Amino acid sequence: MHSSNFTIPARNIRSSRRIRPPGLLSTAVTAVRWLERKISERRNYNALMELSDAQLKDVGLSRGQTESDVHVYSRY
């Protein structure tokens, strides 16, 4: 027969948490993502600088816009 004393095992609260406090690992991941973004931005800038003035005009940009940080261009 079944026992009337049924207990639910206690859960380990620490193991169920997935949020970690900021630490060395999260700082390193943030730094790597920032570096990847900067490398990508530099690649895009270099690609723009290789275009002639006529090619820039075809895509609707001027040389001055490519040299400023105000205009953000990305190629995907």
Structure description:
The protein is an all-alpha fold. Helices cover 54% and strands 0% of the residues. It is built from 4 helices and no strands. It starts with 12 loop residues before the first helix and ends in a 9-residue tail after the last helix. The mean pLDDT is 76. It comes from Rhizobium etli. This is YjiS-like domain-containing protein. Residues 32-65 form the YjiS-like domain.
Can you give me a brief rundown of this structure?
By secondary structure, the protein is mainly alpha-helical. The chain has helices at 13-16, 24-49, 53-58, 63-67.
List the helices and strands and how they pair.
Blueprint: H1 13-16, H2 24-49, H3 53-58, H4 63-67
> What share of residues are in beta strands?
under 5%
Radius of gyration: 27 Å
Separation of the first and last Cα atoms: 67 Å
What is the 3D shape? elongated
The total of beta strands comes to: 0
Number of helices: 4
Computed structural class = mainly alpha
Low-pLDDT segments: none
Rounded average pLDDT: 76
> What fraction, in percent, of the residue positions are helical?
40-55%
Q: Spell out the helices and strands N to C.
A: HHHH
Major beta sheet summary: none
Question: Which terms summarize this structure?
Answer:
YjiS-like, elongated, 76 residues, YjiS-like domain-containing protein, 0% strand, mainly alpha
